[in-house]
Amino acid sequence: MSGTLVLVRHGQSEWNLKNLFTGWRDPGLTELGIQEAEAGGQALADYGIKFDIAFTSALSRAQKTCDIILNKVGQPSLETIRDEALNERDYGDLSGLNKDDARAKWGEEQVHVWRRSYDVPPPGGESLRDTGARVWPYYMTDILPRVLRGEKVLVAAHGNSLRALVMVLDRLSKEQILKLNLATGVPMVYKLNPDSTVASKEVLGDMSGAH
């Protein structure tokens, strides 16, 4: 058996709360977001896992979530690699806009296409496919080899960068991935086979809060 890969979406951010497109902007976690990260960390502590390395994005909401989780599992000083390859999808001209204001400006249907299509990017931003185009190579070169060596690896990142990974791991189609929403702060524990396919997947915690 190869190693273990744990994926966690960061807790609620201040801009999630305000219904703003966030992307590469860098708001912090809300009190609820901190609690979500703590709950995810506690779930991993209860699960009994100890990590060999952690990966997170260049954005503070994912880094803070990572720090909280590592504190909860008793590994506050674990080596952590930060890379913008794991950043949230870049929403371009939508970044910082209220989602209702964006609908008023561009129309409900157009904003829905930008948010939920696989390969149509918003102006100046990235589609989910574009996000995957930077996440997948980084996963293949920097993360996956460690898991295949038998290491236990934590990745604390974002809804869309993690959806790109889950799409590959769970072998989801473009249509299936568009329907997938990842709950904030809920760890997904993957055990991989030596050929990098998934041997097992376990979701730790309550999925009813998924949005």
TrEMBL record:
<feature type="active site" description="Tele-phosphohistidine intermediate">
    <location>
        <position position="10"/>
    </location>
</feature>
<dbReference type="GO" id="GO:0004619">
    <property type="term" value="F:phosphoglycerate mutase activity"/>
</dbReference>
<dbReference type="InterPro" id="IPR005952">
    <property type="entry name" value="Phosphogly_mut1"/>
</dbReference>
<comment type="pathway">
    <text>Carbohydrate degradation; glycolysis; pyruvate from D-glyceraldehyde 3-phosphate: step 3/5.</text>
</comment>
<feature type="binding site">
    <location>
        <begin position="159"/>
        <end position="160"/>
    </location>
    <ligand>
        <name>substrate</name>
    </ligand>
</feature>
<dbReference type="InterPro" id="IPR001345">
    <property type="entry name" value="PG/BPGM_mutase_AS"/>
</dbReference>
<dbReference type="GO" id="GO:0006096">
    <property type="term" value="P:glycolytic process"/>
</dbReference>
<comment type="subunit">
    <text>Homodimer.</text>
</comment>
<keyword id="KW-0413">Isomerase</keyword>
<feature type="binding site">
    <location>
        <begin position="88"/>
        <end position="91"/>
    </location>
    <ligand>
        <name>substrate</name>
    </ligand>
</feature>
<feature type="binding site">
    <location>
        <begin position="22"/>
        <end position="23"/>
    </location>
    <ligand>
        <name>substrate</name>
    </ligand>
</feature>
<feature type="site" description="Transition state stabilizer">
    <location>
        <position position="158"/>
    </location>
</feature>
<feature type="binding site">
    <location>
        <position position="99"/>
    </location>
    <ligand>
        <name>substrate</name>
    </ligand>
</feature>
<dbReference type="InterPro" id="IPR013078">
    <property type="entry name" value="His_Pase_superF_clade-1"/>
</dbReference>
<keyword id="KW-0312">Gluconeogenesis</keyword>
<keyword id="KW-0324">Glycolysis</keyword>
<feature type="binding site">
    <location>
        <begin position="9"/>
        <end position="16"/>
    </location>
    <ligand>
        <name>substrate</name>
    </ligand>
</feature>
<dbReference type="Pfam" id="PF00300">
    <property type="entry name" value="His_Phos_1"/>
</dbReference>
<feature type="binding site">
    <location>
        <position position="61"/>
    </location>
    <ligand>
        <name>substrate</name>
    </ligand>
</feature>
<feature type="binding site">
    <location>
        <begin position="115"/>
        <end position="116"/>
    </location>
    <ligand>
        <name>substrate</name>
    </ligand>
</feature>
<comment type="function">
    <text>Catalyzes the interconversion of 2-phosphoglycerate and 3-phosphoglycerate.</text>
</comment>
<feature type="active site" description="Proton donor/acceptor">
    <location>
        <position position="88"/>
    </location>
</feature>
<protein>
    <recommendedName>
        <fullName>2,3-bisphosphoglycerate-dependent phosphoglycerate mutase</fullName>
        <ecNumber>5.4.2.11</ecNumber>
    </recommendedName>
</protein>
<dbReference type="InterPro" id="IPR029033">
    <property type="entry name" value="His_PPase_superfam"/>
</dbReference>
<dbReference type="GO" id="GO:0006094">
    <property type="term" value="P:gluconeogenesis"/>
</dbReference>
<comment type="similarity">
    <text>Belongs to the phosphoglycerate mutase family. BPG-dependent PGAM subfamily.</text>
</comment>
